[in-house]
Structure formats: C-alpha cells, structure tokens
Design a protein that fits this description.
- The protein is of the alpha/beta class.
- Helix content is 53%, strand content 14%.
- The chain contains eight helices and five strands.
- The protein is globular, with a radius of gyration of 15 Å.
- The N and C termini lie close together (5 Å).
- Bound molecules: shikimate-3-phosphate (S3P).
- The site of shikimate-3-phosphate has 11 residues, from loops.
Length: 172
C-alpha cells in the first residue's frame, strides 16, 4: 500500500445502513489509522443524541454542527472517518470532504439498506416511517451526489470483510 494513502483522511459516505461505521472501524484497524464516527462526535460535542438535536433544533442546525465537526476532524491527523448519510449531501461539507480527503462511496441496494437499518436509534429520518420508502426516495435524490466521491465501492455483500478487502484493493 502506498505510504501516501495514510497521509490523508479517508472519508466514507453513503446512505444509512451502507456500513460506513463498521467498515470504517475495520479499515482503520487494517491501515493502522485512527478512526472517528462523525455522528458520535456530534453527539459528544452537543451533549445530546442526534434524535434530540433534530427534535429540539431541527435538521439545519444539525447540518451546521455536522459540518463543523467534520472540518475539525479533517484538519487534524489523518483518520478513517465515517460520516452520517446526509453529510456529503450538504454542499459546504461535501466541498471540505472532496478537498481534504480521499472519499469513498459505499453503495448498496435498498433491500440491504432496509435490513441493516432495522435498529433506528440515531436515525430520526426513519422514525415511525416505512424505511423502504424513505430509503428509496433518499437514494433517488442522493445517489447522483454520492457519485461525486472519488471512489465507489459496493458494500452490498456480506460479510463486511468483503467490502474492506475491496477497498484495500482500490487503495493499493
Ligand atoms: C442521516 C444519517 C444518520 C445521521 C442522521 C441523518 C441522513 O447517519 O447522521 O440521522 O441524513 O442520512 P447514518 O448514515 O450513520 O445512519
């Protein structure tokens, strides 16, 4: 693996359930890089859950905090960074990610995403709604934007180890 890979952050983008956090953690381990999860960092910085931030302050406020947290992480040492599904859709956040990282879109089919998002605690966009319908709508709007990532890797196959290996191959 070229040493230069470890000099930039690697940012994982894609829809809810695409495996960004799980795959990101394993990839970081494999590469000997630090790992961060933007959703967790936002919750820590705000001292409240993502669902509470959405409920109390609205999505726009969440996107502001998300951009600040991602900017801070990208300014520090190189990380493998898992982002929330909407981060890359925000124009300013996307510009930061594209400029300062190697950005990978984890792409999966709707059925796989639905299956993986059955646990919805930090996913206010799915709360009380039909996950299949929401994810279908989001995919339609967002996939052309995720396609602006530097690299696209399918994360539809399980186990996640396959995807980690596919990413390692892309990087080599
Ligand atoms: C969101 C995805 C979530 C979380 C928030 C909004 C989105 O992250 O940031 O609920 O807009 O797609 P995951 O992709 O980790 O579920």
């Amino acid at each position: 693996l070229p040493a230069s890979i470890r000099e930039r952050s690697i940012v994982l983008v894609g829809l809810m359930g695409s495996g960004k956090s799980t795959i990101g953690r394993r990839l970081a381990q494999r590469l000997g890089m630090a790992f961060a999860d933007a959703d967790d960092e936002i919750e820590r910085a705000a001292g409240m859950t993502i669902s509470d931030i959405f409920a109390k302050f609205g999505e726009a406020h969440f996107r502001d905090g998300e951009r600040r947290v991602i900017a801070r992480l990208l300014a520090g040492k190189p990380h493998v960074l898992a982002t929330g599904g909407g981060a890359f859709i925000n124009e300013e956040t996307r510009a930061l990610i594209l400029k300062d990282s190697l950005c990978i879109w984890l792409d999966a089919d709707i059925a796989t995403l639905v299956e993986r998002t059955a646990r919805r605690s930090h996913r206010p966009l799915l709360k009380g709604r039909d996950a299949d319908a929401v994810l279908r709508e989001l995919a339609e709007v967002r996939n052309p934007i995720y396609a602006k990532a530097h690299i696209r890797v399918s994360s539809a196959s399980s186990p996640h180890e396959h995807t980690v290996r596919a990413i390692m191959e892309e990087l080599s």
